[in-house]
Amino acid sequence: MALWARLNKLDSVYRKQVDDLYDGDNLPMDLRHYLASWIETQDWETASQDYDRAMVLFQVLMEELDIQHSRFVQEDDFLQQHNIRRHKHHFQRYQEQPCNLANVILWFLAKEKEILDNAELAEQVSLIQVHQNPMEIDSQRNMQRKVDILRNKVECMDHTVKCLEEQQDEFDFKFKTHAMEVSTAEADKKMLQNLLNRLDFSRKSMLAGLGELLDVAKDLLDVLVNDELQGWQLRQQRACIGAPDDTSLEQLEKWFTAETTCLFQVRKFLKKLDELMGKMTYQNDPLIAQKPLLQTRVDDLLTSLIKSSFVVETQPSMPQGKGPLVLRTNVQFSVKTRILVKFPEMNHAMKVTVSMDKEAPQVKGYRRFNVLGTCSKALNMAESMNGGMVADFRHLTLKEQKSVGGGKGITDLSLSVTEEMHMIYFDTVFDLADFSVSLETWSLPVVIISNSSQQQSAWASVLWFNMLSESLKNVLFFASCPVAPWSKFGEMLSWQFLSATKRGLNSSQLDMLAQKLFGKQESYEACKISWAKFSKENVPDTSFTFWVWFDGILGMVKNHLENIWKDGSIMGFVSKGKEKSLLKKKQRGTFLLRFSESIKDGGITFSWVDYSPTGEPTVHSVQPFTKVDLNQIPFHEIIRNFQLQIPENVPESPLLYLYPNTPKDKAFEKYYTVKSGADSPYLAYIKTRLVFVSRENTLGPMSPASSDMANGEGFEPVSVPALDPLLCSWIECNSTLMEENVDLEFNEIFVDPTLFLTT
Length: 759
What we know:
Blueprint: H1 3-8, H2 12-21, H3 29-34, H4 36-40, H5 44-47, H6 51-74, H7 78-91, H8 98-127, H9 134-179, H10 186-240, H11 250-279, H12 286-308, E1 310-317, E2 326-328, E3 333-339, E4 351-356, E5 369-372, E6 376-378, E7 389-400, E8 421-422, E9 424-432, E10 435-442, E11 446-449, H13 455-468, E12 484-485, H14 486-501, H15 507-518, E13 528-529, H16 531-535, H17 546-566, H18 576-583, E14 590-595, E15 603-611, E16 617-622, E17 625-626, H19 627-632, H20 635-641, E18 643-645, E19 651-652, E20 657-658, E21 662-663, H21 664-668, E22 693-695, E23 715-718, E24 744-746, E25 749-751
Parallel strand pairs: 2-11, 14-20, 16-23, 18-22
Antiparallel strand pairs: 1-3, 3-7, 4-6, 4-9, 5-7, 8-11, 9-10, 12-13, 14-15, 15-16, 15-17, 18-19, 20-21, 24-25
């Protein structure tokens, strides 16, 4: 579905965001609507950097506007005629600089995609029913209470300072009035002394109040930075590896901005004290001794607060990567920084610069990189959907520096390229109201590869680091890599499915994976897995690692089986022994779907139960289907049309009930793509369908090398011998019955599909 059409189907909250996005005249919403299809099919990114391409698109846009105008003329729609003429006049300003127009449209499309992604994420969170626990709600209430207390104290202090100024003006006036008199009565001197005593007391009280206010601010700062901000950083780190955690910054921004505003107000109070001292001071004036200390305290608090407020909102990622934090040389990546202190007067005032590995370890062979692209951007509110102050770097690339020593691995530490981690740094300066502080933040460690074949290993490193690392700047983490407890490891595996397919792993599926890693045990709580066992050592009796196998299944599910995985039809991770015990208790034709344990890039099979004339149950299983097979035929169609050829040479389907007892068609009919009967649009043709057929007499034991074909009693897999392949044919719904013989490749065996067409 087109992007614009999908946006129009969103909830009202997100449609309001779209409405706000098109509030100005840079790209009118009605024009975006009328030209939606054309706009979304053009290469605006190339046009933004290519004048000739941009000019072509500009001219086509003008033609499209003329077409729309003609249509409204025919429809006698005077209002829309007026709007189109106005839009065309508006876009004429880009005639000399068409690349600017391409940039404008590219920006709007990116923001639309961001709104859509946020809406889909919200839907995902609601589907998995992620709710804030009571502790999180209590924490937020406690924070808000502290912020409210600080604001109240600042308001009270503002009143106190004004009263102090009036009191000092009163004393100053009376003192000067009496000083002009020739003689001063004793009573007048006593009155002046009393006024001075009261002024001194008020100054001391106000200084004490400022000290208490800064104590409250310090307490708020500690909770805000050490609890709330660090909690967000942990959630972001977990979200990078698939956790369904909330990483929004709006609430933190409100708290940071509120405290910063209060502290700047305190600085104004201290400036007022300077003015009062400049007008009048006296012996043992408390302002002289205590005001500098208060100034130091408030400036230290502001410095700490503002430095902490500069964060990486969106971690570095490539458009086509497996996930964030894996970057490839010479391939563009994006990253977004944000300052949580939001002052409108600072919009576009702070320049952020990007650099690499400022604190790189002095290790032989450790690679160095240069950041290329637009490496300096201003923090602004225009690039954020929620109005935050962000610098969105969208087109950065990395280039490796030439090294005299040669070699790309950290040879002294025996680390591979995908275990070598790097940091991206961001610097800016906050300068407001004669207060200036340099700010620095950095990304989570990234893995930098030079070839797409390294992505799988690099993503494994990202998963392991962000699952276990306690120091976010430990780029030599894999030099002394910790083991992972099963509780964390299993949770991380579930997140991979949750983030890719919106359905994680249940306890039974996790138990099967634990059994695969640690053997059968009563409890896996005390079990731990090493980095080597996860990603370096091959699974017994195979030529691949656990991670390669798991990731292969994940990719297969995401690309070919997502819908039936989400609805729970695939049992997936289930051992052969468990499968047998489940099916032997069910009625004939009950089947379940599980993943292969012996195929590197992912495989899925189905097993069903049958009964002999004496009532003995037997479990059969077919050779697993791989991504190559599923690219040709959807898995639900395989299940729908799979048949077993019995001795009488009559094919029938052995798959009747999806475990535990759901009729097959009821479970999968919503995915069927070919209609039948009166609903079929092809009644004039002889309809054909693709059918997988296995002959009953081919049932027999597989090679012992296949771990998917159990050797246990009563378990007989359906094999595919060289002379008796699964029989299949292509679906031919839009043409008459095939007359020519066409060879179809299936498991490297060629058969004539026309011999097995069923009508």
